[in-house]
C-alpha cells in the first residue's frame, strides 16, 4: 500500500508535500463497523482535517508554530466497508510500513477498535512500550454480545499483549462492574473521572519509557464534545485535556505514536467537537513530535 504519493482530498493545516522528509505522518482510519450505540465516526478524520483550516498555526500553549514540525497527511487508509477483521489487518500492515520508515504515526479515528492493530504494530517495534489511554469508557470487555471485535475491547486486548502493568487509563467513568474489577485485580492503572491530576503523578514513573497514547474524544464531557457515538456525562473539560497534552509534552516520556478517535461529526451541528479535535491534533504535533 502506497502512502507517500500525496492525498487529493483535504489535508490537515500546513501538511507538507514530501513524505520522505516528514517526521510525523497523519493518517485516517474511517471505520465504525463495531460500534455499540451510534455510528458515524468513520466521517471523523476528514471533518477534523476540514476544521483544522480554521486554526491558528501558532500555539500559545507550546510557544511553537506548525512550521517548526515537518508532517505529512497521507489521507485515509482504504478500509473494506463492514469487514472488521480485514480492516484491522489492513491498518496493522499500514502501521508496520510506517514504523519501518521511522515515522511518528498520528491516527485519526474512527471507532476505538482501530487503535488495537496500531498498538500491535507499535509493540512489535517497541516491546518495552507503555500505553496511556484517555477515555470515558474502560474498554476492558473481552467481547460485546458475543463479538470479540468490538470498540469496547481494545484496552483489554492491549493488557493481554503488553501486560496490564504497562497500561495506564485516565478519565474513566463508565464500564461494567467486571471491567473495574479486572482493572483492580490485574495490576493496570486506572484513574477515574480525572486526567490531568493523576497524569501529573504518574508521568515521573514513566520517565524514559516509550509510550503510545490513545485519546477517545468522549473523555470530554458532552458539553465540550457532543459529536461522539457514546457520549458520557461527567467528563473533563477541553482545558483539562489540553493540560494533559502539555504535561506529556513537558515530561521525559518518549511518545512513539498517538491517535484521537470516536469523533462522530453528525451529532454536533455546531462543529465544536471537530474544532476541538483539530486543536488537540495541533498540540500533539507541536508537543510530542520531537
From TrEMBL:
Its cofactor is Mn(2+). Pathway: Amine and polyamine biosynthesis; putrescine biosynthesis via agmatine pathway; putrescine from agmatine: step 1/1. Binds 2 manganese ions per subunit. GO terms for molecular function: agmatinase activity; metal ion binding. Keywords: Hydrolase, Manganese, Metal-binding, Polyamine biosynthesis, Putrescine biosynthesis, Spermidine biosynthesis. This is Agmatinase. PANTHER family: ARGINASE/AGMATINASE, GUANIDINO ACID HYDROLASE, MITOCHONDRIAL. Pfam families: Arginase (PF00491). It catalyses: agmatine + H2O = urea + putrescine. GO terms for biological process: putrescine biosynthetic process from arginine, via agmatine; spermidine biosynthetic process. Mn(2+) binds at residues 112, 135, 137, 139, 216, 218. Catalyzes the formation of putrescine from agmatine. Its EC number is 3.5.3.11. Belongs to the arginase family. Agmatinase subfamily. It comes from the Bacteria.
Amino acid at each position: 500500500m502506497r502512502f507517500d504519493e500525496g492525498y487529493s482530498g483535504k489535508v490537515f493545516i500546513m501538511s507538507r508535500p514530501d513524505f520522505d522528509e516528514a517526521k510525523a505522518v497523519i493518517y485516517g482510519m474511517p471505520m465504525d463497523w463495531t460500534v455499540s450505540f451510534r455510528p458515524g465516526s468513520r466521517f471523523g478524520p476528514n471533518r477534523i482535517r476540514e476544521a483544522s483550516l480554521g486554526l491558528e498555526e501558532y500555539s500559545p500553549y507550546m510557544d511553537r508554530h506548525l512550521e517548526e514540525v515537518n508532517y505529512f497527511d497521507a489521507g485515509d487508509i482504504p478500509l473494506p466497508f463492514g469487514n472488521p477483521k480485514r480492516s484491522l489487518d489492513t491498518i496493522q500492515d499500514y502501521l508496520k510500513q510506517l514504523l519501518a520508515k521511522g515515522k511518528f504515526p498520528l491516527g485519526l479515528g474512527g471507532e476505538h477498535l482501530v487503535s488495537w492493530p496500531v498498538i500491535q504494530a507499535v509493540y512489535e517495534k517497541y516491546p518495552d512500550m507503555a500505553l496511556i489511554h484517555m477515555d470515558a469508557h474502560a474498554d476492558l470487555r473481552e467481547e460485546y454480545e458475543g463479538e470479540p471485535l468490538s470498540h469496547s475491547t481494545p484496552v483489554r486486548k492491549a493488557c493481554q499483549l503488553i501486560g496490564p502493568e504497562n497500561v495506564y487509563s485516565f478519565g474513566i467513568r463508565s464500564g461494567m462492574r467486571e471491567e473495574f474489577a479486572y482493572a483492580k485485580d490485574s495490576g493496570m492503572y486506572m484513574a477515574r473521572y480525572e486526567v490531568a491530576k493523576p497524569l501529573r503523578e504518574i508521568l515521573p514513573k514513566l520517565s524514559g519509557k516509550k509510550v503510545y497514547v490513545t485519546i477517545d474524544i468522549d473523555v470530554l464531557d458532552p458539553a465540550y464534545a457532543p459529536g461522539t457515538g457514546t457520549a458520557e456525562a461527567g467528563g473533563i473539560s477541553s482545558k483539562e485535556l489540553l493540560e494533559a497534552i502539555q504535561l506529556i509534552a513537558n515530561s521525559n516520556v518518549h511518545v512513539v505514536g498517538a491517535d484521537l478517535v470516536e469523533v462522530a461529526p453528525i451529532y454536533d451541528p455546531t462543529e465544536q467537537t471537530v474544532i476541538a479535535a483539530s486543536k488537540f491534533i495541533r498540540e500533539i504535533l507541536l508537543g510530542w513530535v520531537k
